[in-house]
Specification:
The chain is mainly alpha-helical and 129 residues long. The chain has a domain of 46 residues. Helix content is 81%, strand content 0%. Helix 1 runs antiparallel to helix 2. The longest helix is centred in the C-terminal third of the chain and has 68 residues. It comes from Methylobacterium currus. This is DUF1640 domain-containing protein. Keywords: Membrane, Transmembrane, Transmembrane helix.
């Protein structure tokens, strides 16, 4: 993340700061070995930070992988869309079959009801008797 107006330190600036860190303890009376031991931890930390930076080759590999993923993703979406369309078509066919069966059943019930009504009227005694 960049902060507006603030430039990140360059490698030469980091090397200079490390040397300055070694000189200060030496100027205060520490031996060179002691000064290097005191400043070693921050230097090691910086070196590990520099080692974890991505190179241009790393970024290019990642870019190539990311460029490949949308194509793969679009193929998967197309396949899923096709399967969904097939599932919807099968569901519509099932609903059409169910509708036809319900119409036949309703027609049968209506015919049976009319038949029962006619039979009941035929066997009822005439109204005047």
């Amino acid at each position: 993340m960049r902060i507006a107006g603030v430039e990140p330190p360059t490698l030469t600036a980091i090397a200079f700061e490390t040397y300055a860190l070694v000189r200060r303890p030496k100027a205060s009376g520490f031996s060179e070995d002691q000064a290097e031991a005191i400043t070693g931890a921050p230097r090691d930390g910086r070196e590990s930070e520099l080692a974890s930076l991505a190179t241009k080759a790393d970024l290019r590999k990642t870019e190539i992988r990311l460029e490949a993923k949308p194509t793969d993703l679009s193929q998967k979406v197309a396949a899923l869309s096709h399967r969904t369309d097939l599932g919807l078509a099968a569901g519509r066919a099932d609903l059409k079959l169910l509708e036809q069966r319900m119409i036949v059943t309703l027609g049968t019930l209506a015919a049976a009801g009319i038949g029962i009504l006619i039979a009941a009227i035929r066997y009822l005694p005439p109204a005047g008797h």
